[in-house]
Amino acid sequence: MANRPMLEVVALEKRFGPNTILKKIDLKVAESELVFVIGPSGSGKSTMLRCCNRLEEPTSGDILVNGRNIMAGTRRDLDRMRLQIGMVFQGFHLYPHMSVLKNVTLAQRKALKRSKAEADARAMNMLEQVGMAHKADAYPGELSGGQQQRVAIARSLALDPKVMLFDEPTSALDPELVGSVLKVMKDLKSKGMTMVVVSHEMAFARETADRVVFMDGGVVVEEGTPDEIFGAPKAERTRAFLSRVSG
Amino acid sequence: MDIFIDQFFNIEIMRKSFPLLLSGLWMTLKLCSAVILLGLIGGLFVALGNMSERRWLRWISIAYTDLFRALPPLVLLIFIYAGLPFAGINISPFAAVVIAFLLNNSSYYAEVYRAGLISVAKGQWEAAQSTGLTPAQTLIHVVLPQAVRNVLPDLLSNTVEVVKLTSLASVISLSELLYNAGMARSVTYNASPLVLAALFYLVLLWPLVRLVSHFQRRLAA
Amino acid sequence: MDRFLETFFNPVVMAQYTPDILAGVWVTLQIAAAIIVAGIAAGLALACLRSYGIRVLNVFIICYADIFRALPPLVVILILYFGFPSIGIQLSGPMVLFIVLAATLAAFAEEIFWAGFSSVEKGQWEAGIATGLGFTRTLTYIALPQAFRLAIPPIVNRVLAITKMTALGSAIGVSEILSSATTAQSFSGSATPLTMSVIAYLAIFLPMVAAARWLESRTAWKKR
User: Fold this and answer.
1) Nearest residue of C to residue B194 by CA position?
2) Domains of chain C: which residue ranges?
3) pTM (2 d.p.)
């Protein structure tokens, strides 16, 4: 694994009024690494993820993507940096007034200024990769949740991101649809994508994650390989959490 | 700048015309209460006609609402006030205004009621009638309260429109707020009385407009 | 019955004044079209500006929208028409009518579009921003089309209500339908021109009312 981190979170702090959601978080994600973030709700894991592309504005700290600090620079620099950070939401957030193909080409055309032909080709390629090419002309309302989420992944991938962030990508899905999305994520991992995943899919974490990070109360309590975290957690809080979720 | 203040915000002229405008405001309020009250009642009947199972009743109520939504209220007012005397029917300006705006507003209120009535689930009718309430009792005690609550912002914004509408009565020389302000303007050759009238309307309606926005935001959330 | 027809539907009077009424129709249509285009464009622009969340600017926009929703247009028309000449600004009747009604429509349209923007899910904005589109392009390509769709039925109703107010032009000598009719009425001593104005307005606005009704039933049906 490469030495230089693809994504680096340095002393990240986030406060909402009197509440401190994130307390000086540090996290390094190497190239092609899949880091899995777990923790109870309210632990700050989603906030941490959303700070990584500044959807949530950090109170202080730095976010480095491929060595460049996204906290420095103008708004335009930020928008350009965001192209390198793909994000997949719990609620998919496909644009309901556009076809699947248009959903995937919009940012390519308007932000990357690709030609229509180039954007279409790239989009079809990505839709193929997530198994959704046959629905290119459908509208989001006609798709199942799992299908929508796969299109949302394609929408991010089409921008050639350096890092992909997944914010509870399967939490809103019916159980029988979860597998199709996880499969796409696994393919992505095998192609060498750098990924940070916030999720409760522990079995998936065990199987595919390079590293598991346990967060609670706005701090990283413990991190290690899946075997270390799931097999022999050191911290009491980690143990309590894991016994609760495996229930 | 001085001339602007002198022409539009002349305190002296405003002070002098204040009693005249106040008596105009009184007439405006009388007009409003008549039109709003009658409109609310008339509109309900039109809406019920619209929801009726009898086809001809439905047809008449739709024709009624569409007709009076298509006609500008001022045209209706002039037609009634200036046209009816030709048919030998003489009518006071006050009555002309009330009739014209009642026709206009009951159709707007009817549309609002209709949306409200539709929004109440069918099960409510069925539940109430299965407990032995008559259709009229069901309407009054069960359905209407829910319907009105659901469309309160629209009822309110329609009522704001009624108050604004009464200013048209000035065109047929009914001495309400705007007419009196216009009189004061033509005597003083100064627009300040009109501005004062505008301020009266703002004091009256701004809180209601805010309330409408507030309701709409709450419903959207 | 004969007398009634004679008074309200006199064919001789009708024939004589049809050209005048038609000229009035033309004036009404022109002013109405200008009001609709300018009012909606301005309202949309204001709602877009408001979405940037610049505090001072928004206070102005909200006050503007509130004031023009609260004031009877006829009051503003009279202030502009009778007051402005004394500070050296001469505006023609049609111009006053256009300015006031377009400003009124803009105020209502701003509120309607803003309500549309507010009901676009937060996630839609986030998806646009996260894919590097930035605020303005997210607004243009993602929020606006969705807000617009929601806004169409209330906008149509408001457009209808405000274009009908072009009849207020008769109070300041704009030769639209109603003033043509009242002039003709006093010359002919017959109520027939008034009937003609009613027919003219119905011909213009009944189709719009029917269209509004159709639009509403369509969106209501979609919700289910």
Assistant:
1) C79
2) 20-223
3) 0.86
